[in-house]
Amino acid sequence: MSDVVVVGSGPNGLAAAVVLARAGLEATVLEGQATPGGGVRTLPLSTEAVPESLGLLRDVCAAVPAAAPTSPFFAEFDLAARGVELITPEVSYAQPLDGGRAGVAYRDLERTVDRLWTDGPRWRRLLGPLTTYSSEVAVIALSDKRSLPTGHPVRLARAATAFGASTGLLAGGWGDGYWRTEEARALIGGVAAHTISRLPSLAAAGTASYLGALAHTPQGWPLVRGGIGALTRALVADLEAHGGRVITDHPVRSPKDLPPARVHMLDMHARVAAGLLAEPYRSRLTSLPLGGGVCKVDFVLSGAVPWADPEVGRAGTVHVGGSVAQMRRAESEVAAGRHADAPVVLVSDPAQHDATRLGRDGLRPVWSYAHVPTGSTLDVRAAVEQQIERFAPGFRDLVVDALVTPAARMADHNAAYPGGDIAGGMVSMWRMVARPRLARDPYAVAPGVYLCSQSTPPGPGVHGMAGLHAARRVLRTEFGMRQIPSLDP
Predict the structure, then answer these.
(1) Among 452, 320, 476, 437, CA closest to 385
(2) CA-CA distance, 6 to 213, in Å (whole number)?
(3) What are the two backbone dihedrals, phi and then psi, of residue 343, each rounded to the nearest 5 degrees?
(4) Of 257, 271, 368, 372, which sees the most CB atoms within 10 A?
(5) Cα 396 from Cα 403, distance rounded (Å)
């Protein structure tokens, strides 16, 4: 019998297993897919027109781990020391607009300020303090929402003040009046749309403040050389070096699929994890509403995306949705269960920054997903192509083929994404705290069973912090250990 069995090998499940194995416990991770990683995997990209022999790779879900560099877990884990190279584009993210214009968020805050003209000083006032205290902002944003963040008290206080002020400003309609240019509004709106929810909202404003601050740090919003799966390989290697193991091709669909253990930890969507529990524990997890869905479209192109504004092509992440008003209409349609004619689309062209992502014959993968209603079965490739073509004339001429994964099929590749909900449940300010429900300990969901997924605080993102928070509780409550082991390589 293992001390701990972790179900799911996403970054949170592996983070929990790494912590427990380093504490001297026997940790076993079960993964239903043939390869570990959950939403942090890099696999061959092939279609009917593009054979696997051309050497293209696709990031199955996450591609740009913006939260990883400042995550307390990954900061101590030290990815660079483990051979994981983070690539930091000079432009963290961009948002193209009609007429060949674009908002561009450089890693250099002052360069961004200069490009925003009359809104430059306002951008500096809003995001400058957040950028100055970005590490503390990350500690606050990635906390368990139950305990006081640790760190320098004065810096934490200043970070909290700036974070609260920015979130309050952007959460309501008064935030619109703060800006004078559509470029600045779009830059903030595109980051807020990561919540896949109605705009504006408190949660979207908090997300925009947090991720917006990270964009102007030296690490920016990084890509991973060779694909994001390198993060998973580093986690698995550390787990195995400390006596843990990962068993793939082992789906857990019912309690009978679980081997005995002193503790079970579930890196699963709360709705999926509920199927492993009896009442009253089951209904406590199903109370978390599903979040919005995504349709993943992996394009194969014969050249770089020809953005009308060349600066957009220098960004690691591109938010495609047009103006803030257009994005709000699109997100309202999705929230109402309808497909938007012009959906919000996230796009990344990794080969622009990483030559290893180029395949033979010069082909390149372009990662994208569109916001759609949860459970959607629709192939929205045409709508995505139309949106990108709108801001990158000639894009369609470069498309060799595409691999489409509708929202309803996302769970085929990762059971933690029911209906295409990649955020582990609804993202709202209330649900960032009451996740999966309001409880003193959101991780303990049944006797000897802990949830350690995005369905718990701090919520979605590639940060490993839900796994760390849950592992801390398991060590203390189940094994009487109060000291978290070092993650230093």
Answers:
(1) 320
(2) 33
(3) -70, 160
(4) 372
(5) 15
Among residues 118, 112, 108, 425, the alpha carbon closest in space to that of 284 is found at: 425
Contacts of residue 377, Cβ cutoff 8 Å, sequence gap at least 6: 406, 407, 408, 409
CA dist 96 and 391 (Å) reads 6
What are the angstrom distances between the C-alpha of 292 and each of 272, 283, 296, 337, 463?
A: 16, 21, 13, 9, 20
Q: What is the pLDDT, as a whole number, of residue 129?
A: 97
Return the HEC string of the chain: CEEEEEECCCHHHHHHHHHHHHCCCCEEEECCCCCCCCCCCEEECCCCCCCHHHCCEEECCCCCCCCCCCCHHHHHHCCHHHCCCEECCCEEEEEECHHHCEEEEECCHHHHHHHCHHHHHHHHHHHHHHHHCHHHHHHHHCCCCCCCCCCCHHHHHHHHHHHHHHHHHHHCCHHHHHCCCHHHHHHHHHHHHHHCCCCCCHHHHHHHHHHHHHHCCCCCCCEECCCCHHHHHHHHHHHHHCCCEEECCCCCCCHHHCCCEEEEEECCCHHHHHHHCCCCHHHHHHCCCCCCEEEEEEEEECCCCCCCCHHHHHEEEEEECCCHHHHHHHHHHHHCCCCCCCCCEEEECHHHCCHHHCCHHHCEEEEEEEEECCCCCCCCHHHHHHHHHHHCCCHHHHEEEEEEECHHHHHHHCCCCHHHCCCCCCCCHHHHHCCCCCCCCCCEEECCEEECCCCCCCCCCCCCHHHHHHHHHHHHHHHCCCCCCCCCC
Phi-psi map region of 446: left, alpha, beta (phi>0 left; psi -120 to 50 alpha):
beta
Residue with tokens 């009359």: 118
pLDDT at 223: 98
- Which tokens go with 26? 């026997």
Give pLDDT tens digits for 442-482: 999 999 999 999 999 999 999 999 999 999 999 999 999 99
Range 88-106 average pLDDT? 98
- What amino acid is encoded at 381 in this protein? R
**Paired residues of 474 in beta bridges:** none
| Global model pTM greater than 0.70 | yes
d(C-alpha 150, C-alpha 156), whole Å: 8
Q: Report pLDDT digits (tens) over 228-249.
A: 999 999 999 999 999 999 999 9
What tokens appear for 277 in the block? 């529990």
Task: Give CA 238 to chain center in angstroms.
Answer: 22
> How does pLDDT run across 266-294, given as a tens digit for each residue?
999 999 999 999 999 999 999 999 999 99
Distance separating alpha carbons of residues 111 and 105, to the nearest angstrom: 8
d(CA 239, CA 307): 42
- At residue 487, φ and ψ (nearest 5 deg) are -105, 5
